[in-house]
From TrEMBL, chains A, B, C, D:
<feature type="binding site">
    <location>
        <position position="64"/>
    </location>
    <ligand>
        <name>substrate</name>
    </ligand>
</feature>
<dbReference type="InterPro" id="IPR012338">
    <property type="entry name" value="Beta-lactam/transpept-like"/>
</dbReference>
<dbReference type="GO" id="GO:0006543">
    <property type="term" value="P:L-glutamine catabolic process"/>
</dbReference>
<dbReference type="Pfam" id="PF04960">
    <property type="entry name" value="Glutaminase"/>
</dbReference>
<feature type="binding site">
    <location>
        <position position="261"/>
    </location>
    <ligand>
        <name>substrate</name>
    </ligand>
</feature>
<feature type="binding site">
    <location>
        <position position="191"/>
    </location>
    <ligand>
        <name>substrate</name>
    </ligand>
</feature>
<comment type="similarity">
    <text>Belongs to the glutaminase family.</text>
</comment>
<keyword id="KW-0007">Acetylation</keyword>
<feature type="binding site">
    <location>
        <position position="167"/>
    </location>
    <ligand>
        <name>substrate</name>
    </ligand>
</feature>
<feature type="binding site">
    <location>
        <position position="243"/>
    </location>
    <ligand>
        <name>substrate</name>
    </ligand>
</feature>
<dbReference type="GO" id="GO:0004359">
    <property type="term" value="F:glutaminase activity"/>
</dbReference>
<protein>
    <recommendedName>
        <fullName>Glutaminase</fullName>
        <ecNumber>3.5.1.2</ecNumber>
    </recommendedName>
</protein>
<keyword id="KW-0378">Hydrolase</keyword>
<feature type="binding site">
    <location>
        <position position="160"/>
    </location>
    <ligand>
        <name>substrate</name>
    </ligand>
</feature>
<dbReference type="InterPro" id="IPR015868">
    <property type="entry name" value="Glutaminase"/>
</dbReference>
<comment type="subunit">
    <text>Homotetramer.</text>
</comment>
<feature type="binding site">
    <location>
        <position position="114"/>
    </location>
    <ligand>
        <name>substrate</name>
    </ligand>
</feature>
Amino acid sequence: MPSLRDVLDEIVAEMAGYSDRGAVASYIPQLGKIDPNKFGIAVTLTNGEVLVAGDADEPFSIQSISKVFTLALALGRVGDTLWKRVGREPSGTPFNSIVQLEREEGIPRNPFINAGAIVVSDVLLAGHQPREAIGEIVSFVRSLADDDTIVVDGDVAGSERVTGYRNFALANYLKGFGNLNHAPELTLGVYFHHCAIAMNCQQLANAGRFLANAGRVPSSGHTVISSERAKRINALMLTCGHYDGSGEFAFRVGIPGKSGVGGGILAIVPGVASIAVWSPGLNARGNSMLGSIALEQLTKRMNWSIFSPKPA
Amino acid sequence: MPSLRDVLDEIVAEMAGYSDRGAVASYIPQLGKIDPNKFGIAVTLTNGEVLVAGDADEPFSIQSISKVFTLALALGRVGDTLWKRVGREPSGTPFNSIVQLEREEGIPRNPFINAGAIVVSDVLLAGHQPREAIGEIVSFVRSLADDDTIVVDGDVAGSERVTGYRNFALANYLKGFGNLNHAPELTLGVYFHHCAIAMNCQQLANAGRFLANAGRVPSSGHTVISSERAKRINALMLTCGHYDGSGEFAFRVGIPGKSGVGGGILAIVPGVASIAVWSPGLNARGNSMLGSIALEQLTKRMNWSIFSPKPA
Amino acid sequence: MPSLRDVLDEIVAEMAGYSDRGAVASYIPQLGKIDPNKFGIAVTLTNGEVLVAGDADEPFSIQSISKVFTLALALGRVGDTLWKRVGREPSGTPFNSIVQLEREEGIPRNPFINAGAIVVSDVLLAGHQPREAIGEIVSFVRSLADDDTIVVDGDVAGSERVTGYRNFALANYLKGFGNLNHAPELTLGVYFHHCAIAMNCQQLANAGRFLANAGRVPSSGHTVISSERAKRINALMLTCGHYDGSGEFAFRVGIPGKSGVGGGILAIVPGVASIAVWSPGLNARGNSMLGSIALEQLTKRMNWSIFSPKPA
Amino acid sequence: MPSLRDVLDEIVAEMAGYSDRGAVASYIPQLGKIDPNKFGIAVTLTNGEVLVAGDADEPFSIQSISKVFTLALALGRVGDTLWKRVGREPSGTPFNSIVQLEREEGIPRNPFINAGAIVVSDVLLAGHQPREAIGEIVSFVRSLADDDTIVVDGDVAGSERVTGYRNFALANYLKGFGNLNHAPELTLGVYFHHCAIAMNCQQLANAGRFLANAGRVPSSGHTVISSERAKRINALMLTCGHYDGSGEFAFRVGIPGKSGVGGGILAIVPGVASIAVWSPGLNARGNSMLGSIALEQLTKRMNWSIFSPKPA
């Protein structure tokens, strides 16, 4: 087995050589300005070790990766009753598709497509003002990463608010089916803000540790969620974490992961590591092009795929 | 950790107590006659040990489970060019849906939905008479299971031929899009026959060993497929192996698995075990109801989910 | 040929005998309060004669019938460039479906489904405040009916605003595809208000006269639209005027018509008559149940179907 | 009003000037060989007069136009019970779409899309051998046209049989839903043969006379169907006769019509005329490009649209 340090350095070097780096998301204006040549990666091992390479300390917009954290928080809040309002199946359609919602009468297929994550935001808004709910989400992410400097990028949040017509459509549609308890603009306020959380790879890898460690933050020993629930969130990330490219990600990379249109991916090797990778250019499915390739190389060289036997 | 022997015995006892056992598939007349009270399970460990419980030596129709074997065989035949004709994404629609085919112009979403498996059969038919292609598939399965008594149930194959109108529709539709090289009735002849292979749990668990063991049959050391390919088939089983219930199976059971409407499930714990379970009654998604529950209990008690950390 | 007077009286008598009168629309609270036993009909002949029967002088909410008037007004405003933003085909889906919009990238199938009518409202809003646009629509309808007492029912308009989530979804979706020039809430303000225009059968039949008379109001001789455009609006009413029940209406009634969920239908016999019928209970397709039956009887007894030969 | 003779001559002259004539259907090999420069038109007035122009005496494959005749024949055979197996609504999807069938569980939307016409063929096959059923259809068409020389083009029928995979898919799909009483290949044998009937414009216009004349053949006085049924078939032609271009045809041409991929259109002016036009090139919706334009010009110049007032 090669050393992880060497593998990360090799990957950073290889990624620098790619000329086709995908297209930076342009539908959120603030994201369109990011330099496509950025590439960073961070690995937090469950033994506490952290390795970084490339632009791992540069903050980016985590976007849909935040849905992993809001899901964990919402399950803590309402438990498995959440699943009355959201499904657990891959969608078979693009991330912002509304077709499935009509066919299945307002129940989003999973918590990682936009409609499902909006319902999760709605759960987190219960009994709160939007500002409070956003504050709780940020506090939760800070505690997971053990880093109080993590904040919402207000420009990005504002930018989504203005251009997020399809999300407004989804929220109103959910409301029309009775699957939204608050006014669409309030729930979307929460949604847009948690998507606009900015983190660098190191912070993000740290924030994901609990999923690699049966629900507990290794450094503090704090139990965030039960091991059962950690296992299940990992399963959802594997089957639904990359929108309509989830099958491909499982096929090539072979570990649970959640991508965001900011170009980040959070990936989990259960029992071993939490990984954050970032490269702003996206592939045709809306997932980080180089991020996916880098993770494929990493799991291959380290034999980290959950679909491979491990040496005893 | 409890002993596997005890766990299997407990599970058989628990399953006997279920009164709601799902509905036996009735659309294939021969399957509709099976006693819904049957329940069997077999586990073949990669160290060669085999444990069985319940009706593990009673043959049943493996149906769609055969698609795992034909996929492995076809990949051996044509390699990754197969993926030009079949996708690798969960479908988001029922197993026999034709809607997705129209939207995606004749490319089935994955090799485990009917349309995808029909394309795989078409690959295996190349250069052969149907009878030869069927013979090769049966030989392949026999060699995997190291058991020359495995045969096609001719009654079941004939039964599918007569009633398989939706499969004829799919095959003709594929042909209309140019994604079938042979006459629909010839390709379906192969498809119906491999679906009608009869095996008992012990044979099926043995046949799946290579997937738990990086592509090699542990007993003989014979390499069936590369470790890379075994890993990827496992990933496909996880994301697509239970039709539109694949997300739920991953969420609850947490290991790669492929179900059949005969009530069987083949499941893989990479590096550890190949499992076959059989109970004829199906749940709403068309997967064995008690089989799914039994596997959920088994992976939970043995900590076999691939989404959980393993003790060092 | 029987006398129209007799036929109308017979129809009113027959309709009184129906116990199954359909279901009053409940999704707009104000509409849910209407007495389902109401039935009215008015016929304005192109020769100026007006015949009424039943509750023909009781105002009701014209709802989607208003889309005929806004279409005529918008065509006057922007001409055939409207058809770049809206199609002219039956939708094959329910009136408030969003599926078609996704498939056809934001171009509604026709101006009578909700999405299409929202685009028409958007056209009428150009260069105006919503209040002004609403004022122009009401003025136009008053001039068509030659009746200055016609007004918007503010309670109904407010009621739609609060509960119209699916329409908000549609408007945001259109906006996301770039097919809405104004803010969704402004365009919907116009839309909800014109749907909330209240008219009685007599007023409505008068307002429709120009469509039966090659675009000219017979009483005043005023040309509202060209005869070519009147012909084409009639064609659209025939193919698309009853949502996913348009084929059935053409099959049974055989004249252009536009229904509203308030239970009204405006129907046109080109060259002969403009007809308004009202009965609040709706059939499964969302069209007035008794209104449809009454019109079927009327066209049959008067030989008014456009699909039948006329005596020389 | 100009003379019909002059109008037809003008139209033929104008059509000769078109360089963009659409694309000749290529999916049926025999049709792909037709000269795209052909153009013919024939008008049979209800008074018995027949006017022809252009290539009106050259036979072409009537294809889907035959569905009008099989519908009339099937309604005569089983009456309105036919409507339990076929709907009466425009489909909103292409002519050979299978999507709608899945959503609506095997009930085709109307008798003019392929699936619906296959069900109609299945009705006509009841109690017959395919050869007999085909014979009855041809006899019926001959009697309508009063011309015993009309035959099925065997080459075209054979050609469809070989390449008609999507129709085989539709037939098997219908069978899977229990909406086909005979073996798919038998029903399709009937279907392919009636689609392969060859007629020239003059014969076709004659064959359609009964629809313009309240169900009676004017020359013989023979009642083919009731006036009620003729009216309703006309309505279906208007709403569903041009596949997913029916709305456009109603909008531009304004009379009932049924097109075929051979480039023919049969159109009806109730009480006035039966019209057959032929030009092999098709527009994007699969309807004769010049045929549609010619009919638009004809109805405009003769004021034949059913959506326009007629002078007293």
